[in-house]
Design a protein that fits this description.
The protein is α/β, with parallel strands linked by helices. It has one domain: Hexapeptide repeat proteins (UDP N-Acetylglucosamine Acyltransferase, domain 1). It has an 8-stranded mixed β-sheet with strand order 2-5-8-11-16-19-21-22. A 6-stranded parallel β-sheet has the order 1-4-7-10-15-18, with helices on one face. A 6-stranded parallel β-sheet has the order 3-6-9-12-17-20, with no helix packed on it. The protein is globular and about 60 Å long.
Amino acid sequence: MQYSTSLLFYPAVRLYRRMRRRYKNLNLRLRGVIVDATAIIDPGAILEPSGGGIIIGARTFIDFGVIIRPLGGVVEIGDDCSVNAYSVLYGGGGLRIGNGARIAAHTVIVPSNHKFSDFDKPIKDQGLTQIGITIEEDVWIGAGVRVLDGVVIGAGSVVGAGAVVTRSVEPRTVVGGIPARRIKSR
């Protein structure tokens, strides 16, 4: 019986990937990021503590290209979560993601906002509001969603792809659109 060459190297590739993930987790711990030993963080993910804190729970998966920057706040991701490719999570006003949350690719979550009420000052000089964002347990956020400051997404909710969430979402509700509106209850 003949085996393909790729099958012979498969165990070595798996070992290499496992060692690379362990190195990434160790490197993050040395920089002050709290990562559970069972979490899987792709080496291509960017986690910058940047004056804040990052906490990643058990069995959580952070995919390639994800950017997590607390910007002085705290980004806390619970157990059994997934954050998929090219999503951006900031933590300026605090970001808490509950257990079992699913965040699809290209999602942007920003728990701060610029003030812009004074016409005599440039927007950059007016400061920020930083209320924070809470995403409760068992939430599914579709691809390309934007979640803005001050929002609470209730447990068991679903946010449709491409939505812009500007207001809080009740538990077990399906929302979508720009701005996100209730479509139905689960």
